[in-house]
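Batch job 17 of 40 flagged for manual review because the log was empty.
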Amino acid sequence: MLVKRCNRVSGFFKAGIVFLIAFLSLTSEAVAQSDGFSKDSLIFGFKVKTGGRFDNVRMCVASPPGAKGGMALEISFFTEIGLSDNMSLTVDIPVMRPVLFAAAFKMLQFEPGVTLNFRKVSDGKVEFVGGPALGIAFHYGPDYKSGPSGSERGPSFFAMGPKIGGYLGVDFKRPGEIFNFQLGVSPYITPMFSINDPDNHKGVIAGGTLDGLFRFTVK
């Protein structure tokens, strides 16, 4: 059962990557060349995130019933808006888990967020980027004691909470090119509280991801 669930997650994950790469390849002709990051920069792209978490609230589809947490995979779209020559705001909208969990497990896990990035400007090939992140986590589904279906599956409930974290990354510069890559880590903690739930579920999610950012400069 667990192997089938992991294979299903992996299949959706690979399909999502292929779709996003194809989409961005088709739209790349409309993207302008970049001479480097500035206060006028507008960047869009997608993130591929992998990591792990402790979670004593939500069911983890890749872990057995009763496991408090497990692996974490996500693909998200993002937009980065330049605020100054060394500061930007990134808006992150997850797409893989909301679609996958709704279609395959009749669940909702949706965690949009924003990050205020500070950039260490350099004349070298890389620049360091980092800053605080704030988001909100929405959940609808069973708790961590539940299985995905049948008699194992427990009752669903709605919960939400603030996602507080940060980001630290390395930006691999490519002046004059429309595309560049950034690699970083995103630790976070999220206290969760249920709403209109007879069992009054509450707890905490804590973890982190390794993020690969595929960045396309619009201006």
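Reviewer: the log was empty due to a logging misconfiguration, but the result itself is present. Residues 2-217 form a domain with the Porin fold (CATH 2.40.160.20). Unflagging and moving on to job 18.
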